Amino acid sequence: MLRGELPLIVVANRRSDIETALRIAKEYTLRLILAGAAEGWMIPNEISAAAVPVLVEPMDNLPSFDALGIRYENASLLAKGGVKVALMETATENTRDLKQQAGNAVAYGMTWEQALRAVTLTPAEIFGVAGQYGSLEAGKIANVVVWTGDPFEFGAAIRSNSRPA
Q1: What DSSP state is assigned to residue 40?
Q2: Between residues 43 and 149, which one has the greater pLDDT?
Q3: What are the structural domain ranges in the chain?
């Protein structure tokens, strides 16, 4: 991480913790990725200026000691502030809920296109694998899923899928 070969993922939700992570990353020239960033909506310009991407769980909205200022609009406000936002689900047993996470992000201000990108190409870019994953392009590795409707709508179901041989 200190040589810049690997990113440092820091879970920081409180504004002051985010600011501290940004300061340390700048001081040590670290490739920082923020995870959580529940109060990131308060300082999107600082996060964007530092070119630090953020992994956000848009359905989080319960205030806690670490995130008194949490709000549903966080992902949208970060994106509007120029931050590279990827959506995440932190509980592995609930990864199926990522489409609802994206739907909630859209319901609270993200455009549909931003939300789609936040669960496809943006995470691939953040983790340095966009040359192989994240979008449907010739030569890339991909799984294609056909939905019965808008994949971010709760009632949409998988019609069929295709996996590479």
Answers
A1: G
A2: 43
A3: 8-131
